[in-house]
Amino acid sequence: MNAAVVYESSFGNTRAFAEAIAGALDARVYSVDDEPPELDGLDLLVVGAPTHVHGLSGARSRQAARDQGAQGTPGIGAREWLERMPEASGLPAAAFDTRPDKAAFLTGSAARGIAKRLERHGCSLASEPESFFVEGTPGPLAEGEMERAAAWGKSLRR
C-alpha cells in the first residue's frame, strides 16, 4: 500500500500518533510544513491535527499554543494545508485528531473538519473520523492510546 500520513502538531502529541499510524501502514509521514506528498499514485491519505478551540487550528490558536509552550516556528496548520490540497478524485482518505477530553460535545473535533474538507477535495472516506486522547493540552498521551492509534492504522489497510 502506498500511503501518506500528514499531520499538524503543536506539542508533539499528534506527531506521535501520526507516526504510530504510519508505522502500522508502512506509510511516509509528512508535517503540514513539509513539501506535500504527491497524491497521484497514493492508495490512502491520512490527515491529522490537534483540536483547537472546538475544531481545526487557526493562526490565533497556534499562537496560543506557542504561548503555552508549544515548540517550533509558526507555520501553516491542517486547515491551510487542506485549502492548498489539489483535487483528489476518489482517493481513499481518513482523518484523525487529538484532544484532551473524551466528551466531543465539550471539546469539538478537528477530525470532523478534516474529513469534510477531504470530501470537498474529492476524497472518499475510508473510515469515520477518529479521535485520540491526551491527558492535557501538552500531553502526555492517554494510556493505551498509542496502541489504539496503531490498531486504527492497521484497520485502514482494509
Account of the 3D structure:
This protein is of the alpha/beta class and 158 residues long. Strands 1, 2, 3, 4, 5 and 6 form a six-stranded parallel β-sheet that branches. It starts with a strand and ends with a helix. It is globular, with a radius of gyration of 14 Å. The protein has a single domain (3-156), classed as Flavodoxin domain (Rossmann fold). It has helices at residues 13-25, 59-67, 78-84, 104-107, 110-120, 145-156, and strands at 3-7, 28-31, 44-50, 92-99, 124-125, 130-133. 35% of the residues lie in helices and 19% in strands. The model has no long low-confidence stretch (mean pLDDT 89).
Globular, elongated, flat, extended or rod-shaped: what is the shape?
A: globular
What's the CATH topology label? Rossmann fold
Spans of at least 5 consecutive residues with low confidence: none
**Separation of termini?**
10 Å
CATH top level label:
Alpha Beta
Helix content range: 25-40%
- Overall mean pLDDT stands at 89
Largest sheet: 6 strands, parallel
Give me the number of helical elements.
6
Structural class: alpha/beta
CATH architecture call: 3-Layer(aba) Sandwich
Share of residues in strands: 15-25%
Oligomer: single chain
Task: Give the number of domains.
Answer: 1
Tell how many strands the DSSP assignment holds: 6
